[in-house]
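ligand=flavin mononucleotide
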Amino acid sequence: MDEKLIALRRDYLTATLDEVDVSPDPLEQFGVWMEQALAADVLDVEAMALATVSGDGTPSARVVLLRGYDARGFSFYTNYESSKGVDLAANPKCALVFHWREIERQVRIQGVAKRVDDEESEKYFATRPLGSQLGAWASRQSAVLDGRHELEQRWKALEIEHEGNEIPRPVFWGGYRVQPEMMEFWQGRRNRLHDRLRYLKTKDGWKLQRLAP
Ligand SMILES: Cc1cc2nc3c(=O)[nH]c(=O)nc-3n(C[C@H](O)[C@H](O)[C@H](O)COP(=O)(O)O)c2cc1C
């Protein structure tokens, strides 16, 4: 098959990003952008690509949902025995990317993932709908299945087994928090002359730099 070429499809015109307007703290700045993204009704605003690297150096990326952020970092929930869980156990360094296309923005984060403590995972698990709680038990995430029937049978059996009872959090399911060491804020601009502001964590605090687009 001949390569299908995709032409440049649009220019980015809606906003600018200036050093004097941003917070000295990238987590505070993330909060400002997240609020603006929410106000702009960005679809799937909490969806972020998570890139991990396995013990043998193979990279891999997938989308997960941001569940919370504060000065400590960015949290998401998953199966600790999934491919990403195995990667993070071997190498906790990882990257996150948000793309908020409606406001022509990207946020990139690099850092280190740590498991959130059990109590916090339990609290969050308890807020999830019953069906998802059973789903967490039913799915050996990233394992090969014989077919969809296997998953559904397991879910059904668990539903019967747990009927009327509270469902405990599986020990293999919980949160990670990514503690950022680098954060970059990208604002699309005309003629591909985009704004990129990068924060690097140093022993003296966060250092802000402008990068060429
Ligand atoms: C919009 C969206 C949100 C998702 N959110 C999560 C999530 O929060 N946690 C999760 O484990 N997987 C989530 N997934 C599924 C992952 O992308 C992925 O398929 C799964 O975690 C297995 O990844 P792994 O085999 O690399 O571990 C989401 C997928 C999409 C498209």
